[in-house]
Amino acid sequence: SYDPKPYGNVTSIHVWVENENGEVVFEAWRNNTEMYYEGEWVTGEKLLHGRGGALYYMPDDFEKDILWTSNGKYTGMDDVIEAFSKGYGLAFFSGHGSPGFWGDHLPGIPGNRQHAQLAGLVVSQVRPYFPFIGFPFFPMKKLANTDKWPVVVVGGCHNALFNVSAIPTVLDIFFLIFLGKNLWMHTYGQLVPECWAWYIIKLPETGAIAAMGNTGYGWGWEGEWCTVGAGDGWITSEFFRQYGEKGYDVLGTAYAQTITTYIQHFKEFTLPECWWYPDLGWDWIDEKTVQQWVLLGDPSLKIGGYP
User: Fold this and answer.
1) Tens digits of per-residue pLDDT, 134-181?
2) Angstrom distance (rounded) from CA 157 to CA 263
3) Which of 20, 30, 110, 122 could form a disulfide with 13 if both were Cys (CB 3.0 to 4.6 A apart)?
4) Architecture of the domain whose range is 38-296
């Protein structure tokens, strides 16, 4: 049966085929197959290959609220909106994105992305395919964390692509299909007046006080190397290490130290033992990671405020 657990990384799979009489005509087992929920390890409290997720580096006296698909607390957008509305000092979204969408998958992606992807928080629910609209039109406006604005780190593709606007994002898919012209909005026809990271900041009384995210495709290392490999998972979790372990509590300084540390580390780092993409040193993945990871908000902000 499908019964995922947090940090569960060993899975046994039993597949069988029955004929019209209910007789098993084929079956096979794949036992002790390793499979990691990358976003959960990147945000989590445990070490993997000597590096922890974001919560591993946070002080023990911080209250922590973990919404994962594996622990049953994240089943859809309502869960995310309800939790965010409580108000936090820091919030970390690690999953998949576009300029107007952030979401994640059920562990193991059962039934492929079509059936296993869960929307977490989106800018709008106006789109050029069925059911065309959802309610509310702009779900972020349901956030109720009045005057309790966190610093947000978002891991995913294009969540901070700040040069989007309403009309080009709607026309994006039609120009591509009918005219063969790519507007590079990456919105697939979804109405996105401002990108996810800026929209959550610009909300007048709720949302976030600052956000960091990617203007381009976020590269994530898969499997057991998800916490140590280059790209999105490393740089986003490193921000929490710079704040929680290194003590950088001014937003711009913590952000700058995160990028500086990434460059220093991956100039020397290799991972040749990774079977699916051996990392042989500094390359285009590292270059794009530091170039596209932007801070939207006031860099002079003292995280947590002054006494």
Assistant:
1) 999 999 999 999 999 999 999 999 999 999 999 999 999 999 999 999
2) 20
3) 30
4) 3-Layer(aba) Sandwich (3.40)
